[in-house]
Design goal:
With 116 residues, the protein is α+β, with helices and mostly antiparallel strands. Helix content is 17%, strand content 44%. Strands 1-2-3-6-5-4 form a 6-stranded antiparallel β-barrel. The radius of gyration is 13 Å and the shape is globular.
């Protein structure tokens, strides 16, 4: 299922909030609009039949329900799910080099989503 070692839960630093949120992202030579099915302070899972390559850096534009404007940041494809074993196909994206302001904003939004 995963292209890297260890279980996803072992690699994850924070509990993820389950939600469907629109995510636009671009890789090396393509632009995609998909949905993220969960998010935490360190990353998100994008449901897609066409994940980017493992380790590829993508530009993300995440539309969160509690914010007026989408959040723009970069991430790295940390793992890929082939959609077997009762999991959706897609990719886990780890956020990269977030500014303090964006990190604080995501932390606040994710905490709110967990409460809801």
């Amino acid at each position: 299922m995963s292209s890297s070692t260890g279980s996803k839960a072992d690699r994850r630093h924070s509990e993820r909030a389950a939600i469907k949120i629109p995510v636009d992202y671009s890789g090396v030579d393509a632009f995609f609009s998909e949905f993220a099915s969960n998010i935490n302070e360190g990353g998100l899972f994008i449901e897609t039949e066409s994940p980017v390559d493992l380790g590829e850096v993508v530009s993300l534009l995440i539309t969160l329900p509690t914010l007026a404007e989408p959040v723009q940041l970069e991430g790295r494809c940390a793992w890929i799910s082939d959609g077997k074993a009762d999991s959706a196909p897609g990719m886990g994206v780890e956020f990269l080099d977030m500014s303090g302001e964006i990190k604080d904003l995501l932390d606040k939004v994710v905490r709110q989503l967990r409460r809801d």
